């Protein structure tokens, strides 16, 4: 049982926080968010230089071989600073390659991810599929030694800035069959690929993808054909665990800002933090934060160490239920306790609110994970 | 939710409903129901249609254009307008400044301003909150120093809704020193927004929308003739305005329309290949909301009856505000949740490409509606009011 | 649209409150609760004398022909005073006879109910049936012109003090079939009838009933054979609506006691009602009360006037969901705000807590009614 | 919920678990798991079994019989005892008076009382609350006037758990005038319950059970030698006791056992002819509770680690109390709800006929457990403590 960071992790987290404090202030972030690409190449390079992109990649491909727990302090710092760079998108898709790819794929892709010269995204969700990972109707037909792929993907976080996409498609079976799903590497500039990018409420970019007769070579297949679902599930659980860690940081930031506001804002001749009703609500926000810290740890340790797949899913879902509810609770209360100021685009708290709102929904909302928790019998 | 109105009330409702169907412009209704931003002209167009019909200021005395309707009729009218998707009435002129002038205004003020407000010649906004005084309104500091037949105003207002669209602003200002009773020395002024020295700065809210502003006053001259009521008695005016009986605090007509939108939207979304509306967990959330709506609808009518029959306990408006805003917020939250992963992508407020698809507006709307429990007396202030005024709990 | 009592109802409610204030103080009630029978014969007679037992019975049988709305102010007063007499049990079973019985049955039974000389109870629930009214496996076999009845009933409120039972039994069909259920009048002293009585947490009596070869005449059948379920449903909805009205009174009483305690109890040099956190919680209790008043009205008006059965069920269920949750909310908060005193048997608030706890569960808990509300499509 | 303990911790847990399986008397365990009332002898019998094993006061210094266990081992021991269904340790002697004597007692007091507490020779209770002073403990009034080598006590204590079983009571009394600092002038006394002038009156709680009492003191003589620490310094003792580190604030072992009972019970109840545990709504309620249990289990361990490594923020015990009691109450509520209409009938506490069926105990237990958020510092007081001590919010 060990919850605190070890020394190496602490040092890394400190470095990340120093970097962000220096290069990622509120105004710097606003410029990045409103820029054409929606991320900063120099910040991305700094992440690579700090080794953040290799935390989850094994040593032979240039990384540090850690699990979700090793990555968690970084995401926590990102949550505090509301980092919008395509970090989670890239490391999630990199895990698909790292866990499922051929030696050649791993050797080609992972070192470039680690050094920061290749950004990835995972194109999985389809219109109407909601959070069901088996609902894949994009079709990959074998053709001339390779595949021809047709279909629609949506809500691809950071899809438009990805240099390479990992795309799920069906090589057999019917929609929602657990078997028959495969993963392919697709160059977003290939013929037949159309990407439409949008902004998200929390300052990220998201893309819809249309695949019309996209031809890929046999080497584009990640892993063996038709059996990708368990891999997808485990990597989405990994992403969910990291998202929980990000929530820890975002909630900490919301709580700190709210506590500060309660102490400094005066009404009726006293700091509003002296009003007992607000005090008790602030305390409940603090308790939510403690619970989320616990559940983020549970999610990370489960994706790292739990060999029983059913149990891993249950624990990750338990964590996400709690995180979604705490994100909702803390974001809503922090804005409410800020009064009008909480609504303003000019204060960080409203941006933290937006990110927490998205975190609650991403990788499955509370209803989805409550259902998965309940139905995954031990 | 057909609560059993009397035959007369039902007939009135049908009259209003029929008229709305014929006279509410489809493009305005679509803007409202598709969550697109309304501009000044949208508000004024609808106001002028109502004015032409004689229905724009039902609660005013009939001599100034009021309809003479009963409280119940006014309630029905307001609910029907919300239910039909009519643009909301901008309250600052018709529901706030107008009643204040009717109660406290000089004959000249009434003659000049009331018909203009009625017809929508002027677009009004409200200068109450200041950076240091929000919930604690009486701590306001904006100074108005009398020089001859003018006041000279220096200071700042904040959260001023629609200041960027407005021709006039009514302000609470400090004309006397802050004494032991901070409520003393406050006056109520009508200020032309074109006066030299007024600067309006947008305050963008977290949904990206521009509704509210900071308004800066730098040596702004206001004729003494534009003061309403006596100097130093502005707090009396402000209190009258805050306590002025309104019948649509709960905004149930709008919420019922939104509830139907939610049900239809959820039926179009898919989960496991079936309509989301079949999902038991989502279904329960919708059911609980419907039960809240039922409870508030009846509570609203019960309160109206209590007010009409003089059995008011004084806490009605606060209770309706609290529950009404909770319902409004839950509606935006369930809509956003219903959209699933697609809720992430937002359409900008003017994105006509997405005009027919409301999905891109849902997350913005969720954010925007957080304001409802903050503005117009935060829900915390409403609870304080109930605790003090109705329950007699000590400070 | 009319919510307030008319003058006649107000006068009656005033009379009831005067009676209860005089004869049903806290100590008087305690004696009744701990007595052998669990109710007071003199109070019962006073109820009859006031005409309370005839409120829902038509004039030709000695009553006043009102509906649930006419009865609601009485139940509200009962809720305030925590009346334990078998009123609801009797008037509910009387409705079964009034609505479903033959002329002979009505003429024999109802006048005696009105004059207070016949107490009734409805034996419906069976072990394991929970709140499902169609789950009846007690069997009534036609035999020699009458019926022989075998089975088990449980949780019969005030069963042990009833002079006559209305019992549901199956004359055809399988358990949970909507058709095939019939109602019978059974004398609790008949051969083969065994009743086991218990106390309830809130000072009432409840009975389990065993029927072993109980012979009844054909005249014991209430209504026509096999089609009793709609009648049972409508009468249980009627009882549910009255229970909602009782909740209005019990919640009012809990709120008044709590508000009084907040104003008088001092800690840290001030009345605890000056602490803002407690003020806001008290306000939420007041709001719950207003909502329950509205929903009790909705339930009563629906059972009185709603001809669409599906809609009636939805409205009654909506009311019971809200009432169950408000009963839980107010009871728990009122005890918590009373601190240790709220736990004491010596204060009325702990008895109100117990009654509200039971009201939340009786006639179906929140889950049951949420399900019924959701599944009763319009 | 196997959180990954270290191999050493797992070995210790297995050691404790094995010993409990062999040494916890089945009749005691059944009484606990079937919600029957425990009497004085039940508590003492289990205490003496633990004492014989040397495990009855793990946290005491080893010279007085402590085990020398680590904080984590003590935590594991306490959770295992709760999980196994052992009678709870009555805290007043072993966890309260003992540690106070070890810290503040005279050599003579230690020599006399500690071994007796350890062996269970004396049954203790706690005289803190008074009718006028509950949450505001420092407002207590019970007077102790010194006369020679005795104090003479007059006054009343309330909510005194197990006073009717107790041989001794430790009391906070007022030995000096109430000055500006109300905490001054309070002393800590040990009082023999057999002293003339003490009257114990039962306070029946709403579940019908007798746990707490009023204790009246009428000219009760207490030797000065029974005062712990200096005269007028009782508040120091009381504060030490309140802040005395305890490891089982969350009572998770007990709650985990209760959670398994709930699941098994719900599987035996029927709904629509199927197990209630298949009902989606009930299932979700149970799932949410399990998630709360998971969250609190990990939080508990995180806090222990923080305390061990000196990173305590001071609010740990309060957070564990708040969430732990919420879980305990939800457990009793879901059990009662699971029983359906049968929950109405209650068995009396001594109804041996119903001894094997827990249904008759569920509503009583729900009522009884409302106390958990009130006693030992109400959850409101815990929130005040967090707001002040951890968050630094102003009064």
Under CATH, the topology of the largest domain in chain A is which? Answer: Butyryl-CoA Dehydrogenase, subunit A, domain 3
Low-pLDDT sequence parts of chain B: none
Q: Note the gap between the termini of chain B.
A: 40 Å
Q: SSE string of chain B, helix = H, strand = E?
A: HHHHHHEEEEEEEEHHEEHHEHH
Query: How is the biggest beta sheet of chain B arranged?
Result: 4 strands, mixed
Topology (SSEs and partners):
The complex is a heterotetramer, with two copies of chain A (378 residues) and two copies of chain B (395 residues).
Chain A: H1 7-23, H2 26-34, H3 41-50, H4 68-81, H5 87-100, H6 103-114, E1 120-123, E2 139-143, E3 146-157, E4 164-170, E5 181-186, E6 193-200, E7 205-216, E8 221-222, H7 229-264, E9 266-267, E10 270-271, H8 276-305, H9 309-338, H10 340-343, H11 348-361, H12 366-375
Parallel strand pairs in A: 1-4
Antiparallel strand pairs in A: 2-3, 3-7, 4-5, 5-8, 6-7, 9-10
Helix pairs in contact in A: 1-3, 1-4, 4-7, 5-6, 5-7, 7-8, 7-9, 7-11, 8-9, 9-11, 9-12
Chain B: H1 7-23, H2 26-33, H3 40-53, H4 71-84, H5 91-104, H6 107-119, E1 124-127, E2 143-147, E3 150-157, E4 168-174, E5 186-192, E6 198-204, E7 210-223, E8 227-228, H7 234-243, H8 252-268, E9 270-271, E10 274-275, H9 280-308, H10 316-339, E11 345-346, H11 359-368, H12 379-390
Parallel strand pairs in B: 1-4
Antiparallel strand pairs in B: 2-3, 3-7, 4-5, 5-8, 6-7, 9-10
Helix pairs in contact in B: 1-4, 4-8, 5-6, 8-9, 8-10, 9-10, 10-11, 10-12
Describe the structure.
The complex is a heterotetramer, with 2 copies of chain A (378 residues) and 2 copies of chain B (395 residues). Chain A has 12 helices and 10 strands. Chain A has 378 residues and is of the alpha+beta class. Chain A folds into 3 domains: 100 residues, Orthogonal Bundle (Butyryl-Coa Dehydrogenase, subunit A, domain 1); 106 residues, Beta Barrel (Butyryl-CoA Dehydrogenase, subunit A, domain 2); 146 residues, Butyryl-CoA Dehydrogenase, subunit A, domain 3. Chain B is of the alpha+beta class. Chain B has 3 domains: 83 residues, no CATH class; 109 residues, Butyryl-CoA Dehydrogenase, subunit A, domain 2 (Beta Barrel), CATH 2.40.110; 141 residues, Butyryl-CoA Dehydrogenase, subunit A, domain 3 (Up-down Bundle). Chain B has a 4-stranded mixed sheet with strand order 1-4-5-8. A 4-stranded antiparallel sheet of chain B has the order 2-3-7-6, with no helix packed on it. In chain B, α8 runs antiparallel to α9 and α8 runs parallel beside α10. The model of chain B has no long low-confidence stretch (mean pLDDT 93). Chains in contact: A-B, A-C, A-D, B-C, B-D, C-D. The interface between A and B is large, with 48 and 49 residues. β6 of chain C pairs antiparallel with β11 of chain D.
């Amino acid at each position: 049982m060990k919850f605190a960071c070890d020394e190496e992790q602490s040092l890394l987290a400190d470095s990340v926080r120093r970097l962000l404090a220096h290069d990622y202030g509120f105004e710097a972030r606003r410029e990045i968010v409103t820029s054409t690409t929606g991320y900063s190449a120099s910040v991305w390079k700094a992440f690579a230089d700090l080794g953040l992109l290799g935390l989850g990649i094994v040593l032979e491909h240039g990384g540090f071989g850690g699990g979700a727990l090793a990555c968690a302090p970084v995401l926590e710092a990102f949550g505090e600073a509301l980092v919008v760079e395509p970090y989670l998108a890239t490391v999630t898709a990199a895990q698909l390659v790292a866990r499922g790819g051929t030696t050649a794929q791993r050797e080609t892709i992972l070192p470039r991810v680690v050094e920061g010269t290749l950004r990835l995204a995972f194109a999985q969700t389809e219109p109407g599929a909601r959070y069901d990972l088996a609902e894949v109707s994009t079709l990959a037909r074998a053709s001339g030694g390779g595949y021809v792929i047709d279909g629609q993907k949506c809500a691809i976080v950071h899809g438009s800035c990805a240099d390479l996409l990992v795309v799920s498609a069906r090589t057999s079976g019917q929609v929602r069959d657990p078997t028959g799903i495969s993963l392919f590497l697709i160059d977003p500039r290939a013929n037949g690929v159309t990407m439409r990018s949008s902004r998200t409420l929390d300052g990220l970019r998201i893309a819809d993808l249309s695949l019309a007769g996209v031809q890929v070579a046999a080497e584009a297949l990640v892993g063996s054909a038709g059996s990708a679902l368990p891999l997808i599930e485990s990597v989405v659980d990994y992403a969910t665990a990291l998202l929980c860690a990000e929530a820890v940081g975002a909630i900490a930031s919301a709580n700190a800002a709210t506590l500060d506001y309660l102490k400094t804002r005066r009404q009726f001749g006293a700091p509003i933090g002296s009003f007992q009703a607000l005090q008790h609500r602030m305390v409940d926000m603090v308790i939510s934060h403690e619970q989320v810290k616990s559940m983020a740890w549970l999610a990370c340790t489960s994706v790292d160490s739990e060999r029983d797949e059913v149990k891993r899913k249950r624990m990750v879902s338990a964590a996400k239920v709690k995180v979604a509810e705490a994100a909702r609770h803390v974001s809503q209360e922090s804005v409410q306790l800020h009064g009008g100021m909480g609504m303003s685009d000019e204060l960080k708290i409203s941006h933290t609110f937006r990110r927490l709102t998205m975190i609650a929904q991403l990788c499955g909302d509370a209803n989805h994970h409550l259902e998965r928790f309940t139905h995954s019998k031990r | 939710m057909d609560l059993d109105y009397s035959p007369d009330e039902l007939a009135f409702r049908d009259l209003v409903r029929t008229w709305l169907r014929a006279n509410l412009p489809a493009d305005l209704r679509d803007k409202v129901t598709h969550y697109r931003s309304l501009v000044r002209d949208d508000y004024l167009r609808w106001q002028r249609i109502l004015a032409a019909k004689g229905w724009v200021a039902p609660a005013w005395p009939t001599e100034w254009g009021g309809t003479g309707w009963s409280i119940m009729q006014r309630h029905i009218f307001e609910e029907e307008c919300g239910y039909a998707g009519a643009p909301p009435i901008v309250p600052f002129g018709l529901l706030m400044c107008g009643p204040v002038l009717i109660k406290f205004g000089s004959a000249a003020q009434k003659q000049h301003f009331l018909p203009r407000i009625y017809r929508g010649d002027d677009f009004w906004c409200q200068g109450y909150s200041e950076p240091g005084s929000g919930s604690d309104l009486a701590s306001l500091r904006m100074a108005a120093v009398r020089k001859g037949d003018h006041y000279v105003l220096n200071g700042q207002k904040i959260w001023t809704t629609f200041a960027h669209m407005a021709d006039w602003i009514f302000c609470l200002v400090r004309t006397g020193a802050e004494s032991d009773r901070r409520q003393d020395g406050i006056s109520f002024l009508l200020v032309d927004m074109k006066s030299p020295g007024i600067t309006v700065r947008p305050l963008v809210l977290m949904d990206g929308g521009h509704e509210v502003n900071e308004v800066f006053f730098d040596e702004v001259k206001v004729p003494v003739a534009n003061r309403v009521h006596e100097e130093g008695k502005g707090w009396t005016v402000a209190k009258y305005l805050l306590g002025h009986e309104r019948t649509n605090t709960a905004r149930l007509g709008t919420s019922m329309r939104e509830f139907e939108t939610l049900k239809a939207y959820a039926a179009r979304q898919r989960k496991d290949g079936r309509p989301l509306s079949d999902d038991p967990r989502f279904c329960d959330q919708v059911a609980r909301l419907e039960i809240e709506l039922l409870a508030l609808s009846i509570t609203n009518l019960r309160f109206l009856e209590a007010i009409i029959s003089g059995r008011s306990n004084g806490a009605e408006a606060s209770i309706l505000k609290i529950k009404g805003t909770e319902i409004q917020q839950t509606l935006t939250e369930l809509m956003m949740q219903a959209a699933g992963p697609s809720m992430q992508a937002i359409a900008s407020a003017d994105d006509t490409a997405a005009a027919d698809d409301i999905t891109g507006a849902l997350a913005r709307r969720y954010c925007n509606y957080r304001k409802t429990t903050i503005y117009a007396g935060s829900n915390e202030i409403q609870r304080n009011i109930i605790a003090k005024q109705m329950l007699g709990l000590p400070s």
